[in-house]
Amino acid sequence: MMPTEASREDNVYMAKLAEQAERYEEMVEFMEKVAKTVDAEELTVEERNLLVVAYKNVFGAWRASWRIISSIEQKEERCENEDHVSIIKEHRGKIEEELSKIRDGILDLLDSPLIPLY
Protein backbone atom coordinates (compact mmCIF):
# COMPACT_ATOMS: atom_id res chain seq x y z
CA MET A 1 0.00 0.00 0.00
CA MET A 2 1.31 3.44 -0.94
CA PRO A 3 1.83 6.07 1.76
CA THR A 4 -0.53 9.05 1.84
CA GLU A 5 2.03 11.36 0.25
CA ALA A 6 3.35 9.18 -2.56
CA SER A 7 6.68 10.13 -4.03
CA ARG A 8 7.12 11.06 -7.64
CA GLU A 9 8.68 7.65 -8.29
CA ASP A 10 5.75 5.89 -6.61
CA ASN A 11 3.26 7.76 -8.78
CA VAL A 12 5.22 6.92 -11.94
CA TYR A 13 5.29 3.27 -10.89
CA MET A 14 1.55 3.29 -10.17
CA ALA A 15 0.92 4.91 -13.57
CA LYS A 16 2.86 2.09 -15.23
CA LEU A 17 0.80 -0.48 -13.33
CA ALA A 18 -2.41 1.28 -14.34
CA GLU A 19 -1.25 1.25 -17.97
CA GLN A 20 -0.57 -2.48 -17.87
CA ALA A 21 -4.02 -3.04 -16.37
CA GLU A 22 -5.54 -0.71 -19.00
CA ARG A 23 -6.93 1.52 -16.25
CA TYR A 24 -6.19 4.76 -18.04
CA GLU A 25 -8.29 7.06 -15.87
CA GLU A 26 -6.20 5.97 -12.88
CA MET A 27 -3.09 6.43 -14.98
CA VAL A 28 -4.15 10.03 -15.65
CA GLU A 29 -4.61 10.61 -11.90
CA PHE A 30 -1.13 9.33 -11.08
CA MET A 31 0.51 11.28 -13.91
CA GLU A 32 -1.32 14.46 -12.91
CA LYS A 33 0.22 14.06 -9.46
CA VAL A 34 3.64 13.67 -11.06
CA ALA A 35 3.11 16.71 -13.28
CA LYS A 36 1.98 18.82 -10.33
CA THR A 37 5.15 17.97 -8.41
CA VAL A 38 7.25 19.49 -11.16
CA ASP A 39 8.70 22.77 -9.96
CA ALA A 40 12.09 23.63 -11.27
CA GLU A 41 12.69 20.32 -13.00
CA GLU A 42 10.98 19.09 -16.13
CA LEU A 43 9.21 15.82 -16.70
CA THR A 44 11.50 13.08 -17.90
CA VAL A 45 10.95 11.61 -21.36
CA GLU A 46 9.38 8.55 -19.72
CA GLU A 47 7.05 10.72 -17.62
CA ARG A 48 5.97 12.76 -20.65
CA ASN A 49 5.29 9.58 -22.58
CA LEU A 50 3.23 8.15 -19.73
CA LEU A 51 1.22 11.37 -19.49
CA VAL A 52 0.53 11.32 -23.23
CA VAL A 53 -0.48 7.64 -23.20
CA ALA A 54 -2.80 8.19 -20.25
CA TYR A 55 -4.64 11.15 -21.76
CA LYS A 56 -4.68 9.68 -25.28
CA ASN A 57 -6.36 6.50 -24.09
CA VAL A 58 -8.85 8.20 -21.78
CA PHE A 59 -9.79 10.79 -24.39
CA GLY A 60 -9.87 8.16 -27.15
CA ALA A 61 -12.31 5.96 -25.23
CA TRP A 62 -14.70 8.86 -24.58
CA ARG A 63 -14.38 10.00 -28.20
CA ALA A 64 -15.28 6.50 -29.38
CA SER A 65 -18.34 6.58 -27.11
CA TRP A 66 -19.32 9.95 -28.56
CA ARG A 67 -19.01 8.64 -32.14
CA ILE A 68 -21.14 5.58 -31.36
CA ILE A 69 -23.84 7.61 -29.61
CA SER A 70 -23.86 10.16 -32.45
CA SER A 71 -24.24 7.36 -34.99
CA ILE A 72 -27.17 5.88 -33.08
CA GLU A 73 -28.70 9.34 -32.79
CA GLN A 74 -28.53 9.81 -36.57
CA LYS A 75 -30.11 6.40 -37.11
CA GLU A 76 -32.96 7.21 -34.73
CA GLU A 77 -33.46 10.60 -36.41
CA ARG A 78 -33.77 8.88 -39.80
CA CYS A 79 -36.38 6.56 -38.26
CA GLU A 80 -38.11 9.63 -36.81
CA ASN A 81 -38.08 8.12 -33.32
CA GLU A 82 -38.12 11.39 -31.39
CA ASP A 83 -38.46 9.78 -27.94
CA HIS A 84 -35.19 7.93 -28.43
CA VAL A 85 -33.52 10.94 -30.04
CA SER A 86 -34.15 13.13 -27.01
CA ILE A 87 -32.77 10.45 -24.64
CA ILE A 88 -29.72 9.97 -26.84
CA LYS A 89 -29.09 13.72 -27.07
CA GLU A 90 -29.13 13.96 -23.29
CA HIS A 91 -26.65 11.10 -23.01
CA ARG A 92 -24.44 12.59 -25.73
CA GLY A 93 -24.42 15.84 -23.75
CA LYS A 94 -23.07 13.99 -20.70
CA ILE A 95 -20.32 12.45 -22.82
CA GLU A 96 -19.45 15.88 -24.23
CA GLU A 97 -19.23 17.28 -20.69
CA GLU A 98 -16.81 14.52 -19.71
CA LEU A 99 -14.73 15.14 -22.85
CA SER A 100 -14.58 18.82 -21.90
CA LYS A 101 -13.39 17.94 -18.38
CA ILE A 102 -10.64 15.74 -19.80
CA ARG A 103 -9.62 18.46 -22.26
CA ASP A 104 -9.62 21.07 -19.51
CA GLY A 105 -7.51 18.79 -17.31
CA ILE A 106 -4.73 18.46 -19.85
CA LEU A 107 -4.89 22.16 -20.73
CA ASP A 108 -4.56 23.07 -17.04
CA LEU A 109 -1.50 20.86 -16.80
CA LEU A 110 -0.01 22.42 -19.91
CA ASP A 111 -0.55 25.89 -18.44
CA SER A 112 1.38 24.82 -15.35
CA PRO A 113 5.16 24.48 -15.13
CA LEU A 114 5.12 21.76 -17.80
CA ILE A 115 5.64 24.40 -20.49
CA PRO A 116 8.24 26.91 -19.35
CA LEU A 117 7.75 30.48 -20.51
CA TYR A 118 10.64 31.86 -22.50
- Whole-number mean pLDDT: 89
Broad CATH class: Mainly Alpha
Helicity level: over 70%
Largest sheet: none
Radius of gyration computed on alpha carbons: 18 Å
Number of domains: 1
Q: Helical segment tally? A: 4
CATH architecture: Up-down Bundle
What structural class do you assign from the helix and strand content? mainly alpha
Determine the CATH superfamily.
14-3-3 domain
First and last CA, distance: 40 Å
The gross shape turns out to be: elongated
Total E-strand runs: 0
Unreliable parts: none
In short:
This protein is an all-alpha fold.
Q: Layout of SSEs?
A:
Layout lengths: L7 H13 L3 H13 L8 H34 L3 H30 L7
Task: Using brief descriptors, characterize the structure shown.
mainly alpha, 118 residues, single chain, elongated
What does this structure look like?
Helix 1 packs antiparallel against helix 2 and helix 1 (8-20) crosses helix 3 (45-78). The termini are far apart. The model has no long low-confidence stretch (mean pLDDT 89). The chain has one domain (8-111): 14-3-3 domain (Delta-Endotoxin, domain 1), CATH 1.20.190.20. It is built from four helices and no strands. It is 76% helix and 0% strand. It has helices spanning 8-20, 24-36, 45-78, 82-111. By secondary structure, the chain is mostly helical.
